[in-house]
TrEMBL record:
Name of the protein in question: Peptide O-xylosyltransferase
Coiled-coil stretches noted in the UniProt entry, renumbered to this chain: none
GO molecular function terms attached to this record: transferase activity
One Pfam family of this chain: Branch
Localization per Swiss-Prot or TrEMBL: Endoplasmic reticulum membrane; Golgi apparatus membrane
Membrane topology recorded in Swiss-Prot or TrEMBL: Single-pass type II membrane protein
Top-level taxon: Bacteria
InterPro entries, A to Z: Glyco_trans_14 (IPR003406), XYLT (IPR043538)
Length: 573
């Protein structure tokens, strides 16, 4: 019977990685799990993994870790280090199966072992010529040098490519290798793994060559295994992966469960962390002693592709729906069913509210994702599940896609801060799409239109507030606040947001005033109806939030407006 050694490449928080490890160990009582944990991830998380699995004989943790990133050599090198650790351990296994924390079994692992026994002479890895690629660089992945990260330093990446083309620079592909391409995910026989490690040891210069190949995880193993010979499964690997027309991976959610269980694969890539019901059902199925339906023993003829939308299962891919239109907030939000709460207001208020909700537990509370200078994730974190806080170029290339990736990777109900000017289109949509967003507007002072001056004053950058403070007369300060906000945020945007926040007809929903008004009962009932149990941690935190906000004197944040706002509010009753 086949013995599986899962090679798990991971960068997520320790509890997420631990959930994947525990699922594999529980589903297969004989398997091994060799883990390479991205060196870019926090040391504290790696230390937590070592404490948790240091005494577990079936779990191997790579100590000498590589730094990983999309399209970079670290993904290859980290995998090779994990394979080397497996070999050095002397533990018994017949197949190495590469997975990540978003890969989840969709059939019993006992059936996978039967499948591998039936096809014991076959390596399951895609190894195609350049026609496998749908766009972008082809031969130049190899023949040019790629020292810069496409994801994090795209400008330098593209400038380097242009310069090398201009100068006619070309690299020579190492002797004995014919470039081959395919999915990063594979299942290899132990004999093949030994051959790959032997090739790495005997060809150090050729291995270094791959350090500056673009997206080497889609070509290194595919090329080396091809060079080693052996039998490869034509057009099939045991891991189901799918992409949309824009080359973005399709993410699976709870309502994909029935479709996933019908597929002739053993794992599926990109099961959303929020798809808890789907993950739980698949984990239970993975541990069954044998197939519960017709087993997959013959190698399928071709890789599974997603059915068209017209078929019975709706909403494939959510934000990644083919044809949804990238960089298009309204169109993409139509297919996003992952709810999130949005703290909307001036930065001092959103920061305060985020801190209170973060302490309540049960929520994934983020900062200002669309801050002009950096994406703010959680305090002290510069990365969030593979996304880099400083990479605003990648974020702003497709903001809807960036947000969808964050929401799909949150373990609890996502909550994020949104301040005036962060994204004017999204700011309006937050209050119009109640199935997607739980809008939590934070208004200093109260709902009366008189307090709008204080709202915009606190939303302005510090230098502009200082200029307002310098005005001598109190009415000049109010006038300057209004004019500066219209100039900084745009007059039409200010008017549109004031209609949503302060107009009497649009006061439905939750608005925290100076006294810490608790949520409206009708609004709470509606929230439970729309989002079910996912909303409970947020509702449970409202009382603490209202109490904390009631103790704040918002006028201390704007002493130069305190007298004016009091007087104007009094005149408005």
């Amino acid at each position: 019977m086949a013995i599986l050694a899962f090679v798990l490449i991971a960068h997520e928080p320790a509890e997420v990685v631990g959930a994947s490890i525990d699922m594999l160990l529980a589903a297969d009582g004989a398997c091994l799990v060799a883990v390479h944990y991205d060196r870019n991830s926090p040391e504290a998380d790696f230390a937590a993994l070592k404490r948790r699995y240091g005494a577990q004989a079936r779990v191997l943790l790579v100590e000498d870790r590589a730094r990983c990133g999309w399209g970079q050599f670290g993904l290859v090198d980290g995998t090779v280090r994990a394979l080397g650790l497996l070999a050095a351990s002397g533990k018994d296994y017949t197949h190495a199966y590469l997975v990540s924390c978003s890969c989840w079994p969709i059939r019993p692992l006992a059936e996978l072992r039967q499948f591998l026994d039936r096809n014991g002479a076959v390596d399951f890895i895609e190894s195609h010529d350049e026609r496998w690629m749908t766009g972008g660089l082809r031969q130049e992945r190899y023949t040019l040098r790629h020292p810069f990260s496409f994801a994090r330093r795209r400008g330098l990446f593209e400038a380097s490519v242009r310069l090398q083309r201009l100068l006619g620079l070309r690299r020579t592909i190492p002797a004995g290798l014919t470039p081959r391409y395919g999915s990063q995910w594979w299942c290899l026989r132990r004999e093949t793994v030994s051959g790959v490690l032997r090739w790495v040891a005997e060809n150090p210069a050729a291995y270094r060559f791959y350090r500056q190949v673009w997206i080497p995880d889609e070509t290194f193993f595919q090329t080396v295994v091809h060079a080693l010979g052996g039998t490869l499964a034509p057009g099939y690997i045991p891991t189901l992966y799918t992409f949309n027309l824009h080359g973005k991976p399709i993410v699976f959610y709870d309502d994909h469960l029935a479709w996933l269980q019908q597929q002739p694969h053993f794992f599926a890539r990109k099961i959303a962390p929020s798809a808890k019901s789907c993950r739980a059902a698949l984990a239970a199925r993975a541990g069954l002693p044998g197939p519960t339906d017709r087993p997959v023993l013959a190698i399928p003829a071709a890789r599974t592709r997603m059915p068209p939308r017209a078929e019975t299962v709706p909403f494939y891919g959510r934000m990644f729906e083919p044809g949804s239109g990238i960089r298009n907030w309204p169109k993409n939000l139509e297919t996003l069913r992952q709810p999130s709460a949005v703290l909307y207001g001036p930065p001092p208020l959103t920061r305060l509210a985020a801190g209170i909700l973060r302490a309540s537990g049960g929520l994934t509370v983020l900062g200002r994702i669309f801050h002009a200078e950096r994406a703010e994730f959680q305090p002290g974190q510069s990365r969030f599940h593979g996304l880099d806080a400083g990479d605003t170029t990648l974020r702003d290339y497709d903001r809807a896609l960036f947000l969808s990736r964050i929401l799909s990777r949150a373990t609890g109900l996502p909550v994020f801060e949104l301040c005036p000017g962060d994204d004017p289109v999204l700011e309006k949509l937050v209050f119009e799409n109640e199935t997607t967003f739980v809008a939590v507007p934070l208004l200093p002072g109260g709902r009366s239109p008189a307090w709008r001056f204080l709202f915009w004053y606190l939303a302005l950058p510090e230098p502009q507030r200082a200029a307002i403070d310098a005005a001598g007369h109190r009415f000049d300060r109010l006038r300057r606040t209004e004019e500066t906000a219209a100039r900084h945020f745009g007059q039409k945007h200010v008017a549109a947001m004031e209609r949503k926040l302060f107009a009497p007809a649009n006061r439905a929903g939750l608005v925290f005033a100076e006294t810490g008004v608790p949520p409206d009962p009708d609004w709470t009932t509606s929230l439970r109806f729309l989002h079910g149990g996912r909303a409970e941690p947020l509702l449970g935190a409202f009382e603490a939030l209202a109490e904390a906000l009631s103790r704040q004197d918002w006028r201390r944040l704007a002493p130069s407006l305190a007298e004016e706002t009091e007087g104007v509010a009094a005149r408005h009753g």
